[in-house]
Amino acid sequence: MTSYYRLSGGGNDFLAFLEPENLPDSEKIRALCTRGLSLGADGLFTLRRTAAGAQMDYFNADGRGAALCLNGARCAGRLAFHLGWGEHELEVLTGAGAVTARLADDGEISLDVPPPRGRPKPVDIPIEGETYSGFRIRIGVPYFVLPWAETLARAPVSELGERLRHAPEVGPSGANVDFVRFPDEQRIEMRVFERGVEAETLASGTGVLAAVAVGIHLGRSTLPAEILTKGGHVLAVDGEVEDNRPVRWTLSGDARLLAEGDYHDIAQSNPLPPDWSV
Question: How far apart are CA 12 and CA 79, in angstroms?
C-alpha cells in the first residue's frame, strides 16, 4: 500500500505524495486520477521540503506535467502548513518559479503570484460558421478567455470548450478555455474547460487570473475582485493595476485537506478502453 493525501482548492481536487523516492510515471498518474475506476482527481502533485518551504511537481490527470497550477500550489501550501513546514508564510517552488503562500486567520490560503508578462491578445476562432472572439493569455500555462454574454448556467462548456481547446488559433499545444461574464467591476463569473483534464472542472486558479487580466484589459474589472466558480467557491484577487494591466496580484480562497491514508496497488492500473463491436 502507498500513502497519499487528498486536497481540494476552490473545487479542484488533487492527490499528493509526500517526498517520494521517484516521480510517478504518467501511466500511474492517469490510472490514479481516473474517476470511477480509481481514486479520481483533477491532478496529482508531489511535495518535498526545502529550506524556504516546499517544492511541488505537478501533473494533470492525463499524466503530463504542467509548469503551474495555482489551486494546486495553494493546496501544496496547505499541506506544508499542516506538516509544520511553516507557520504563516512559506515559499512553494513550482515549475514556473517560486510563489509565496500565506495562511490567513480564517484558514484560507493566499498566493503572491507574478503578473502576466504580456497583454491579452485578441483572437477570433471560426467553428462551423460561428466566430468566437476572445483573448489569448499565458498565466504559467496558456488560456483562451471567451467573454460570454448570456448566463453561464447554459454555456456549452464541455462541447464548445473542447473545440476551442484544440483550435489551431490558440497555439500548437492547445489551451485551457475560460467562459467568463463580468456582472460588475468587482465580480466575475467563470466556468473552465481544462487542458490535461480534458473536461470542465469546478475551478481553476490560473483560469481565475486569466479572467481577471482580460477583465482589467477590457475596462470591465477592477481590483479587488471576487470570482465565482462552478464549484460554488469564490476566489479573491487583489493587487495593483497600472496602465490597464496587473503589476502585482494575490490569489486567495478555500484550500482544504480532505483525507490521508493508503491505497492498494490495484488503484494504479485501469482496464483498456472497451473495444466495441462494429
Answer: 15
